[in-house]
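Notes from hallway chat w/ T.B., transcribed later so I don't forget. T.B. wanted the structure written out for a chain they're using in a teaching module, and asked if we could keep both sequence and structure tokens in one place. Agreed to drop them here.
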Amino acid sequence: MLPSQIHKRINFNFDKQKLIFDTSQELFSFAKVDDGTKELLNSLRKDSNLNYEKVLDLGCGYGVIGIFLKKKFENSEILCTDRDSLAVEFTQHNAKLNNVSIDVKSSLDFQEIKDKFSLIITNFPAKLEKNGLEYFIAKSSEHLEKDGTLAMVIVKELEDSMDEILKNENILASFKEKSKNYSVFHLKFKEKIEDTKFSYSDGELDLELGENIYPIHTTSALREFDTPHFITELIIEKVLNEKFNRYKQITVINPNQGIIPVAVAHPCLRDKIVLASRDLLQLKISSENLKLNAIGYFEEMNSDFPQNKGDLLIWGLHEENHKEVLEKLGIYRKNFKKIILGGRLQVVNRILQVLKLEPKKEIRGKYCVVEI
């Protein structure tokens, strides 16, 4: 974690515990602990039957729930997981900040989780909707010890879906509470729930490059669900028009749905394409799309700050802080022969001004792409 990624410090006092959390504007609810998490934590105080011996904080963000529980129940064994490696880094950082010892690891939902727990607690991501909710509940039943509990908060819009799911006679809601915007449920299971069919890919688009069309499977949980962003289009045009055929090892930062990796791979077969993202979902979807288009020579890197070396680095900026970008570019310019940088014109101009560079810009409206 870079110093430039820390944007705010939160003081959080709850149930006689005084905690502090450093946060990044790139993480969910960075300015304050969100209301859904507060309601979820408050529900724990109302359920005296919970067992805190071994707890999984699934989708931990910057660590509020797991760190609070470890502070409150010192003998608890706590595992915090998140699909975002930046969230994992912040949770590790905040655990040290609050003098607690917990386990933290990257995992896309339950994919890297092997153990069983007495309590699983999660602020469910609303974008996954009913199918995702069914999947999370079914997988939780596999990872709970006998008489274990799943405690989760959902947005109001998913209440009808939850009511439908709770018709399953093997699921018991031992606690439920509804507020204006959220609903909290504590669920127990008579037996393991059969795993439902679930795929993060819930959409598709056709990537047209000249006479060729490449299928792209997309997920609504990431940007560019139904159409490429202007930044993506500019980057693809730049790479293809300049014919970077001499560059055999290409790294793509934040490949998102995998549109850029698929686009740059086909004009000239590469020795290797590196997908670099802190988001395991981006890596999963991008990898699936490379395989879908018969591209097998790629490598995944669970970080948006790759330390590898190569011929060409492609980086599309969206919401990154310009100070962080400059900090990373200092390393990238040493490790890569060329860098293709795309983003908002105002942001890119500011970066180039600091670097004292005046490359040619390809501009479309408020966006541009440059080669440095």
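Follow-up for T.B.: The chain has a mean pLDDT of 93. Might be a good example for the class.
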